[in-house]
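Hey L., structure's done. Input below.
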Amino acid sequence: MVFHTDPQVHTDPQRAVKLADRIPGTSAARYMGRDVHKEWVGPLPTDPLELCLEYKLGFDDVSDLEEKKCVVTFDERKKLTAEDAKVFAQALIDQGPTNIEYLFLAGNEFGDEGLAAIAHAMEEGALPKLLTVDFSRDKATDAGFICIVNAIKHCRQFRDLIFAENTLGDTGFAALHQVMLRDEWPNIERLNLAGTQFSRHTISDASFVPFATDLADGKVKALRLEELEMSDNDIRDAGYAAFAVAIQRGNLRKLRSLYFVANLITDEGAGALAAAIANNKRTKVCHLAPSPKRLLPLIHRRTLKAILFP
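Output:
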């Protein structure tokens, strides 16, 4: 078991590209973007399709969407708006079914409207091979998140969802819980719903405890889950304890990495979770730092050390 103060960041370009399909949301996407985009030359296009696909997304032509496997937003000066996202989604439908496996669309401005449009494209069968999406920092809320998770069932190979640093709370997480109860996301491998220190997500025990309880009871299936990132939320000891039971019962046997940084945890919750993880040989990374706001007593390092390294 290794405790890291920060998630590992891969900075080697060649290694990053190789890991792009295994570690979504890292620098891999940016390095990959450099390889698949062209630089725009000439006046700014007036056609919405050219503006979105060629100028902002760096496609060679508006007609080459069907064969692409990875779509990345790569330039801070070319953020996708809600209208851009609608144009992109309609192009997916018109040229689909596409071969796209990765949508790295972090750091845009399309919000819930844009996510609803992309979800509609998923529902229309335009993205049957989709594996991974990154919608971090897209000014989205529970409404857009709900649209996406309800569309996952139309992408049967789908495995990784990153929705970090938006505005997400119990309403959105409860919708995800229902999707998983219906077994509409059987291939889940990575889930990142982290907030940030100055813009926390608000997923609390109100939605997390029922989810973790159903996970422990086998009603929610997540046997392939390898990485869970729930940092900067409002999960308390009850949520940790319920999740620990799921680990103890072998319902998260492939879990490798777990991040619960800056939640509302005390020694009680940390101890329950650490004890469960100590018996899970696959879990190599676990980060359970307390909230910087210190709303609750700090976790004592000796609590974790005594359990994990007796």
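The first strand starts at residue 70 and ends at 72. DSSP finds eleven helices and eight strands in the chain.

-- N.
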